[in-house]
Amino acid sequence: MRNQQFAIRPTAPAQALDELQRIHFLDEKSADLSTPSLLLQDLYDRSWPEFKTPDVIHQQLANLMATPDTDGWAFLSHHDTVPVTVFYNLALQRLGFAVDLDFKLADPLAAMAKIQLPVADHAGNDFTIAELKQAWYHLLTTHSKNGQTFLDQLTTHGYFEPLVHDPNVDKPLIFNGKSQAVFDTTQLIREVVYVESAQDTDHDGQRDLLKAEIIRPAETEAGLKVPVLYTASPYNQGTNDEAGDHMMHNVNVPLQPKQPNDTTLADVTAQPDTTPVPAPRPVTATTKEAEQTFAREQSYTLNDYFLARGFAVVYAAGIGTLDSDGVRTTGDPEETTSTIAIIEWLAGNRTAFTSRAATQAIPAWWSNHAIAMTGRSYLGTLATAAATTGVAGLKTVISEAAISNWYDYYRDGGLVIAPGGFPGEDADVLAEETFSRQLQAGDYHRIQAKWQADLAAITHDQDRATGNYNRFWDARNYLKHAKNIKADLLLVHGLNDWNVKPRNVNNLWNAVRDLPVTKKLILHQGQHIYINAFRSIDYTDIVNLWLTHELLGVDNQAETLLPNVIIQDNTQPETWHAYPDWDAPTNPTRSFNLQHDELVDQQTHDPLAYATSFNDQLPVEQYNRYTHDIAAWQNDLLGDKHNAMFNHRLIFKSAVLTDDLLLDGKPVVDLRVAVNQPVGMLSFQLVDYGDAKRLGVSPTILARKALDEGYRWREDDLREFQPAATTPFKMITKGHRNLQNRTNTYHVDELKPNAFYDLSVTLQPTHYRLLAGHQLGLVIYATDFGMTVRGNQDLQYSIQLGNSALHLPYLAE
Amino acid sequence: MRNQQFAIRPTAPAQALDELQRIHFLDEKSADLSTPSLLLQDLYDRSWPEFKTPDVIHQQLANLMATPDTDGWAFLSHHDTVPVTVFYNLALQRLGFAVDLDFKLADPLAAMAKIQLPVADHAGNDFTIAELKQAWYHLLTTHSKNGQTFLDQLTTHGYFEPLVHDPNVDKPLIFNGKSQAVFDTTQLIREVVYVESAQDTDHDGQRDLLKAEIIRPAETEAGLKVPVLYTASPYNQGTNDEAGDHMMHNVNVPLQPKQPNDTTLADVTAQPDTTPVPAPRPVTATTKEAEQTFAREQSYTLNDYFLARGFAVVYAAGIGTLDSDGVRTTGDPEETTSTIAIIEWLAGNRTAFTSRAATQAIPAWWSNHAIAMTGRSYLGTLATAAATTGVAGLKTVISEAAISNWYDYYRDGGLVIAPGGFPGEDADVLAEETFSRQLQAGDYHRIQAKWQADLAAITHDQDRATGNYNRFWDARNYLKHAKNIKADLLLVHGLNDWNVKPRNVNNLWNAVRDLPVTKKLILHQGQHIYINAFRSIDYTDIVNLWLTHELLGVDNQAETLLPNVIIQDNTQPETWHAYPDWDAPTNPTRSFNLQHDELVDQQTHDPLAYATSFNDQLPVEQYNRYTHDIAAWQNDLLGDKHNAMFNHRLIFKSAVLTDDLLLDGKPVVDLRVAVNQPVGMLSFQLVDYGDAKRLGVSPTILARKALDEGYRWREDDLREFQPAATTPFKMITKGHRNLQNRTNTYHVDELKPNAFYDLSVTLQPTHYRLLAGHQLGLVIYATDFGMTVRGNQDLQYSIQLGNSALHLPYLAE
């Protein structure tokens, strides 16, 4: 195991002592203890909340080894001093590390160094009393083998239980810059309100009411104002999975030629909706009491963690979902308006009612008006959307695996490009899947006709026929409004996320680079996952530091302590690096020419004018097999040049690299290409060739239910990316382009059969370490069985190698 | 979906009304309601505990459809009558079934029949008031789409919340013969005690103290005596996984010839341990208060379900585990003594202390002295072990996937036979893995030398060299004591469990068939899994009915209502059949001769004297591949006769079956066999040949966290066996035999090279429907890559077909 913590706040010794008192590890009694050994015994006494008498506590100490020959109780009861090695022998065992397996009792400091656990300052071989207190402070912030701080581990064993109902304890309780779990999760208050939105998307003559589920600490009843984590999740009231499945589009259809046009940016720019909005409902009565509660929300473990720590959590599914008004729109401005309506209510700027009858208004009287949004995928997307409005009260968004432009989710380069794993899905399918009003037959009966018409309009407007950018997509491009962002940003994305592709976070990062807000970025090696239960990085602590700063206003150095960019290493397990930026405009570029299926450095070889070609059409059996087994296609695509894909794609490999190459940014392929018909597309994959044990893109569950989010509260599984079996290659990144969209995604260019055209394609951004001894590969092909249409057309593509090149931004090391 | 419920207790109408009053669905107010419609509205009003005002409750009714055109609120507020179709339209929606997808509003009764949901009696098309009350009673016992009763579904939404703290509510509260969730799971009391066992397995001069974790309802503090579910789990204090992995035995070793012997049954009969036991510790003080609690036990969802329903739960890991005294023994009588010590304490017949210092005794003063054991695998094994002692207080055991004889777990027919999936595991490995005292370095330091000696003795005594039955294994054969069983039995096992093989449950079933206890058996199509979260069978309700009868003494017809044997159908999903018995001695037998790789009916063909042969030795590359990919070996073994396994095994297939054949019991293979060296073994698989979509042996998770075990309590995932892709064959059952153990498992016979010997091998028991159109197959081979040693020896086996036959017990239909 290798531990990496970014959120340990450096703390002055005096403040550390003060904080230890606040959390009851030091008090008047400890001030009287005359030796380091007595102090350490006292600290340990306090650290075993499940044991009630000295007898059983000493038994626990006797179950730890202090030296290779002496147990903890025997040692401390016979010595006044606390050698540093004894302290860390005991500490490592408390942190869950196993004697002999993880460390040797003869040399605990070697293990501390190897695992990357911090060792406190000490002038001699023994801790003084003053040093020991600081060492204990540091130990509480140190991660256990379970990937929790020691203090969080103690929390799960009930350490804070006596403080929960102690009126002398300040709430929130801050330790090392982070809010602690002193709130009683068995007493959480759950209530439902209906927020009145500023629109009427189902055109029933009344503003849409939107259901919101609120969970807040019981302490709010006594007047505590709390910050809010708000997750907008269209899935969270249920989904229409079967109806969505039925709507999936057939992708085994040919790519169609497009009529060239002169479409301009103005032609595809969405216009604001000017439909008049009905007046708000009159407010005749106001109450603090809801009429409706709920047994169980669809929860998110990161939110659960903060429920134990004094944050309220709000879930809302938005227009068109179960118990709300309106219709689904898959990301258009109406959905954004719906999303921020909840924030406006939480910030005191909008009305909510206790029921859909709207007879009584109910304010968010318990809110401190500081709101963060959280969530992954569509949930993170709506957080991003909300941020681009600059809505008041939204202090920060934590957007994980979020879409920044729906064109980049369902389209690319004038092509219909499916999110990985979901061929045939489109904006209309997602609208139908999330239209959970359908789950209540009585409600659906009243809206069915309107909904069917709206859904048909989405199907029409998304325009699968051309794949072009148009007003439909422009309305769903949040990047246009990035300049309005006022919330601080914590962005998280997987470099192997081929569902919401990395371009989404890259474009947003580039759009906000110069905005006057604080922004942080974490890139991991996973696919479309969340990372808040990983062992090797203190993500939950990072978020706690961040939110304690953003929402509770604690000056905890979050802005400066956290690196701008944290990126997980793709070659070493459990390794995360800090960087000042990602895809910086100043990155140098290295270019390669293409030469008879080889990649050669531009500096060392003359460009040659060869044309080389491949045909996209496969034998029917092979084609059918790939349509049912996309992994097999991908494996053949990148595999041996002379396998079943021979002559159906081109593979160019570089010389074996003599030094590591750290790609960072957006690779660009320049090509001169011809096709034998007036229709065509090209796809590209950049590949790391070389035998290696690579990280799996799905994390391994190390221990089920190992992480309690509080004390006897909800639980998460501990995870980690682990090296999988040796593989001969790995795709680094990819890209796609319709040959009729050489200019941009909306202007359709002519395409004459067998005429050569220049094409420049920007691939999805990446950050990837290519190891010395490996080869860089570029694979050029057409049909992408996982993402494009699959017409199996007789299309012969020719490429003039002399006019083609690959350009790679990288980080100089 | 197809619903099957075995635990709906038939209830007389008057009692149904009484029970509806007890759970607050009927009261004086409902007696005044003058029309069926008003009554149904009132019942619905009470069924939405999350909604507090008439406004929001009526809204819920308006979200359901009563007829194809009218919602529930519109209908009921405008009609006096309740048509049967309206009742079930509303009911189906409440049960989670979707309009149009699962049923049509025009004909709900068709769906009720198809899904197998019970329809209440009705004289006309409308329910009378009296009929309606009975219909509501039935509806509460009916399973929802989530595989919970409607009442359990209401429970998860908080229906019983007002009853939890209502002093007028009787606890336990019984409805339809089953205990209901009226206990507050946020107030459960958790405490640790140390039970003094009647032995000293670590020979430290003091009786072993055994840690037990207790969870009991807070109501016990006010004097309620409660029954106990006790799970003995050696895993539950942690395991030494890495140490266990290191101890795994090498299975790539040759099978060794054995010296013929004249061993008798007496020679291998274990002798009772006569070592004197130290005197009990003196009891000088007694308390009702524990010194130690715990934050979180390793829980078992079935137990969690009953914690909400007024049962206490106790977990204990036994001798040699963390915080307990003693050493691990893997199933010998000392472990049984350790297991029942906890029961003796719970029944008031043994001392426990509040700590290992043993200064204060603590009785189980809150126990009603009625105890059940629960658990799967090793846990169920210890339940079986405990039952065979006849210990007082143990009313019933629910043994899931339990071992009945450790020889049948690690050995078979004079061979070392691994549990499926764990080649190289043995009794010593399991002892090391579960010796969790090792997890506390301080405690381990004190016991290490003794433990290493004990472990070496296990390694020696288990005798991997011969694989013979001996005194070591005889001491671990619970079947010898089956006649002592006094507890009623609920046995559950997977017919595809190749970890704990079906022989274990079969031998126990046969041993108790004539004992004067109630016994029930459930056989499912899974492997080594538990079935308490399945949708198609009401397993949790079955257990509730069973335990409410066994531990609370409620006369609820559990003994007669539940079928003796329930077996899941292997050809139809979601189908379970009731049978009077399994493997009944009276089953008829059908026999097949072997003929040149074919199976022919004995009646229709003359026996022939052919000898046919195969060689067990594989090319090295093929051998190496199979050692790393056991699934590939298994697939080749049963696959095309002429594939890579050609001449390395024999495949005999029957004629295509013209009728279904329902195998039930233990197939027997009679063979005349020779081998070219003085050593040899044979393995057998009975195979179903024929293309079919078969059930997967691992269940599919239908919905995560869908099943709350109470109200805002712990959650389980909803599961089901689902048909997987079409496969050409499936193994039905298998068996193994050392050719030197032709007589029995301890007597070693001589084996001359190339001499023919008669051999009769009983395969693992099964229950399997072979469909008409399929072929029965018998595959004869030697090395079993998943279970036997894999020496890749040059062993040529010859079989005289004329003297060989297959005998199959079956159920006549």
UniProtKB/TrEMBL annotation, chains A, B:
GO terms (BP aspect): proteolysis
InterPro entries recorded: AB_hydrolase_fold, Galactose-bd-like_sf, Pept_S15_Xpro, PepX_N_dom, PepX_N_dom_sf, Xaa-Pro-like_dom, Xaa-Pro_dipept_C
Molecular function in Gene Ontology: aminopeptidase activity; dipeptidyl-peptidase activity; serine-type peptidase activity
Active-site residues (renumbered): 377, 497, 528
UniProt entry tagged with the keyword Chaperone: no
Function, as annotated: Removes N-terminal dipeptides sequentially from polypeptides having unsubstituted N-termini provided that the penultimate residue is proline.
Name of the featured protein: Xaa-Pro dipeptidyl-peptidase
Species name: Levilactobacillus suantsaiihabitans
Record gene name: pepX
